[in-house]
């Protein structure tokens, strides 16, 4: 894996958030999880880093922002974390 900082912005009871966490763990990718529900600072940070996106999950890998459902994010996340 490339040595990149990974941050996952989540909300509770989110199936797509859980699926992304499982993917990152399965790929042995360390990540920081930030729950944006009830944490205005984490929400503001997510919006700033992801061009105003307001709905979790948002996955930040380095400066790249991935958002949308798990099946939309999965191929892009894998491409970003796997060596080229």
Automatic annotation (TrEMBL):
CDD domains: NrdH (cd02976). It comes from the Bacteria. Transmembrane segments: none annotated. Residues 6-64 form the Glutaredoxin domain. SUPFAM superfamilies: Thioredoxin-like. It holds the Pfam family Glutaredoxin. This is Glutaredoxin domain-containing protein. It comes from Deinococcus xinjiangensis.
């Amino acid at each position: 894996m490339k040595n990149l900082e990974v941050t996952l912005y989540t909300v509770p009871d989110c199936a797509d958030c859980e699926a992304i966490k499982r993917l990152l763990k399965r790929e042995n990718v360390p990540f920081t999880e930030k729950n944006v529900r009830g944490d205005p600072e984490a929400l503001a940070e997510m919006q700033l880093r992801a061009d105003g996106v307001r709905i979790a999950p948002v996955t930040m890998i380095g400066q790249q922002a991935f958002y949308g459902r798990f099946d939309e994010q999965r191929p892009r996340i894998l491409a970003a974390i796997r060596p080229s």
